[in-house]
């Protein structure tokens, strides 16, 4: 596959928050796109829907026949045993890709420093990077922190906390720094690395234009929405308790919420910005990303 090749591309997770925004952009770029989902009958978006379940190896082999490249945008964060499931799924996906002669797997994983004590969620996302490539297909990894866009789980937590809490109770993790990125910018990077000779087999870190603590993100959202957000310092709130009140004030699935809160002690900031040379553009500011997400929400309603 060369940079200009127009081979068929499979998007595993093409119905998800990131995937459903990626599919139309790939089509726009002239690619034939297969959207892999467990429920093709329910899919009415662009591209060709194909049935595939990462827990059924045979379905993966069939879905990938004739594909030059595949995206891997799948996780099982709402399952209790997500680490084992995601490890098995990534191994099976990598094997099927090798058997089908796929030349590039592109995976959107998580930021976080290896030297840190990473949460189970971030460790699992990191393990998937290696397992996807074990059967020999080169993997391009894009590691991201919070992805901002209507329907994104981490963004929804931020928005709903700001909108539903009369005052922000602040456990220690609200001081953790992160580098949120607009979903449109993630999609730009995902499209940009496809078939790019300088991206094959490489790991990149992607982030927006600002590094912000969780509490600052919430204050910015409150300011944009014109809401007051008094902040009450309660440094001893444990992650367990945090995820409990998260379940009360947001509609995010409680197990997913718990797994994400556990990750909030880990700083997720870009250390190496070499992606800027491979796919050059200036990412949106946080405020801009928030305005777009809120606008998307208004339109969806
Ligand atoms: N959202 C964020 O803020 C964020 C931040 C950093 C990194 N990421 C990464 O971005 C990727 C995509 O995340 P997302 O937020 O777009 O996820 P999402 O909205 O939860 O979508 C998950 C996708 O996985 C598919 N899926 C789940 N189980 C499957 C299975 N057994 N077999 C086949 N497909 C399965 C679902 O497809 P069907 O239900 O149609 O089968 C769905 O399209 C993940 O790797 C995630 O770690 C996300």
UniProtKB/TrEMBL annotation:
Example GO molecular function: protein-containing complex binding
Entries under InterPro entries matching the protein: ComplexI_NDUFA9_subunit, NAD(P)-bd_dom, NAD(P)-bd_dom_sf
Any Pfam family the entry gives: NAD_binding_10
Domain NAD(P)-binding: 13-158
Protein's name according to its UniProt entry: NADH-binding protein
